[in-house]
Structures are given as C-alpha cells and as structure tokens.
Amino acid sequence: MFGILAVAGEYRHQTITDTYLSTPARGPVMGAKLLVYAILGALTGVAAGLVGLGVAAAWWAGKGASFAWADAEMWTTIGGGIDWSAAFAAIGVGAGALVRNLIGAIAAALAWVALVEDIVGRLLGDLARWLPSTRARAWAPRPSP
Q1: Among 35, 70, 81, 135, which has the highest number of CB atoms less than 10 A from its own CB?
Q2: The model's pTM
Q3: Distance CA 111, CA 102 (A)
C-alpha cells in the first residue's frame, strides 16, 4: 500500500504536477520513488520481524521453554519477509503509476493477491514460481519429509 500511495496518491491530490514541474524527466522521479519505498518496505519488514520475534520469545518464555535464536530456518523466513515487504512496496509504486486512481490501484492490488495470482498460477503451471506471492512463499521453511 505504501508504494501505491506514493504515486496514485499524488495523482489523487494533484501534487504530481508540482513533482513533474520540478523534475520534468519522469524516469528519475519514479526511480527515486522505487528506491525510497523499497527501503521503507524493508524497514517495515524489519519492524514486523522484530515484533514477531518479541512476541514469539515472550510466548516461549511464558511456557517455560527456551527460544531457538540460532534456528537458521527462522532467520531465513524473517529475511524473506523483509525481502517480500521491499519487493511489494516497489511493485506498489509501479501499480500506482500504471493505474493512477488510488482506490482502483488498491482494489486491483488486493484482488491480485487474494484471487488473481492463484488463478494465474494454476494456469501457468511451473512458471507460477516467478509470480510475486509464490516467490515470497519460497522463503518459508519446508516441512520435513
């Protein structure tokens, strides 16, 4: 949502005109928005990871068990969540630039995540592994056979 608000919000409030008047080349403007919002998405992922770690550690401590801080799968999943947050913030910038309507862009993004990607993934078969949500699930640990 951060990325969509970055661009489509400017179209909604008509501040994009001032942005493009100050820097008429759209490429550097969108590149800067991509970078800034990807970093903001990553920082949001870090904050979510820290909150999740704190809650999990408190939960385990409340049960009298020790928390596995050295678990590699846990850190891989947290790293994937940070990566996923940064990637989806950047994708949101692109969606906001393409759709330009704030409500339409948010609705399209939610529909994509909730419905379209699953249907498209089933139609594409093995190529579905390159879709954004499927790539994000690749960070999750695999159950042991």
Answers
A1: 81
A2: 0.78
A3: 14
